[in-house]
Amino acid sequence: MSHEGELAGTITAVRIAGPGSEFLMDDEPVDVFLEDGVIADIAPTGVLPPRGAVLDAAGAWAVPGLWDNHVHTVQWALAAERVDLGAARTAAEAAAVMGRAAPLSDGRRVGAGFRDALWSDAPTLSLLDSATGTVPTYLINADVHSTWLNSAALRREGFTSPDGMLREEDAFEISRRLNAVDPARSDRAVIAAGARAAARGVTGLVDFDMAWNADAWPRRIADGFAAHRVEFAVYPFDLERAITAGLRTGDTHEWPGTPDAGRGLIRVGALKIISDGSLGTRTAACSHAYPGDPENFGVLTVPPAELTDLLTTATGAGLAVAVHAIGDRAVTAALDAFTTTGAVGTIEHAQLVRHADLARFARLGVIASVQPQHALDDRDVVGTHWALQTSIGYPLRALHDVGVELRFGSDAPVAPLDPWHAIAAAVERTDDDRTPWHPEEALGFGDALRASVRTSLRPGEAADIALCGTDPRTAAGDALRTMPVVATLVGGRVTHRA
């Protein structure tokens, strides 16, 4: 019997439910033979003798290991020690919650996950000060593009703001400072979070932490992290450092003496560029103004000429790019830059896309890295703040049908790091008792699963596998979101066993 951490040699009595099943004649159980981290053979159960340590699937359904293609890893890991503000319905309620919160060990109160776009009252400095007093207090918007600080926190950080709100780059700087905890503390949090991800069938993620990740991940591997694969990004403020270090997208990145369990898990990802704001902060760059604010069309935080220069530099250095573009003006500008430079990579979010840009996505081979759960979390905000927009909101089917490759993620901690949530959101287009939101953009289960994996269950592919307790092809609603994962393997090594 294979145990967690052990290298499995044979998975017996498993049903193939994901990519790879098309090569089988029926749904009867098979045995999957693993060798050197890859799938070596598949045969009907019992036909061939087992090899090595045996993992008895007992009829469970196998899908390729799941990926979350957009994660802010340290911020997600540290969310467990921050006050959850997702339920706050007003600014006064959020302030009161923070006033009752216990400070962290560094003397700061930190809350996260508020959504002020639909609050009936405005966040003000006096309101937050009256509730929180002299303890430095920080509230991070769910979209991370704005933060609300009291006077004590503003003084501590050296910022000023008449209402306590900091937006875009100032907000990112606050998040960077809050995330820059002692490495031992953040690494413990990341290792614990990695175990939670493995328990949901995750075998890989793309890390968009706003930090120098090239040292952090090998250090975590040396400390015992081995839960899943990681592709880490670099940001423009570290671009020259990355080029000098010889980082190239796709290269394995590890230190000498890397433990065997961690070998090959860490790879260099893309240059991440945040080219506009967000819907929640009302800064996503759009074609039409935000209601009640006729001068506000959002912001292009990276001007088009600068964006083209960044893509040119990255491409010449062997780096792919991941361009954050939420509003339709930002998506158009990003596609223009891809066209001019020949860069390869992704547009992250693509929450509002002009009809004319759908075909450009496909023609350029740009991948749409999207977060289906955001469509459901934002549906009320869209109805208020994007009511006048004429582009397609949160497209999935529209992109898929013109041939665009989709990759799903969570943007954790903005949404839970759980690919089953993304798959369910794409298939169901609702997560409550309301009717599906824009059901014309829904995907079938097979297409949603393919957007959540990087491999197939067939010989020669990496042995990254998730075993499900029920058949995911027939699950719906909550059954899909709460899919039981009985085991997860990365390169044939068991990283989770229920």
Structure description:
It is a single chain. The protein is an alpha/beta fold and 498 residues long. 30% of the residues lie in helices and 22% in strands. It is built from 17 helices and 23 strands. It has helices at residues 73-78, 91-100, 125-132, 151-157, 169-179, 183-198, 213-222, 239-244, 304-316, 328-341, 355-364, 372-377, 379-385, 397-401, 419-428, 445-450, 478-481, and strands spanning 10-16, 30-35, 38-44, 54-56, 61-64, 66-71, 83-84, 109-114, 137-141, 146-149, 165-167, 202-207, 229-234, 266-274, 321-325, 345-349, 352-353, 367-370, 392-393, 406-408, 465-468, 485-490, 493-497. The strands form four sheets. Strands 1, 2, 3, 4, 5, 21, 22 and 23 form an eight-stranded mixed sheet that branches. Helix 10 (328-341) packs parallel to helix 11 (355-364).
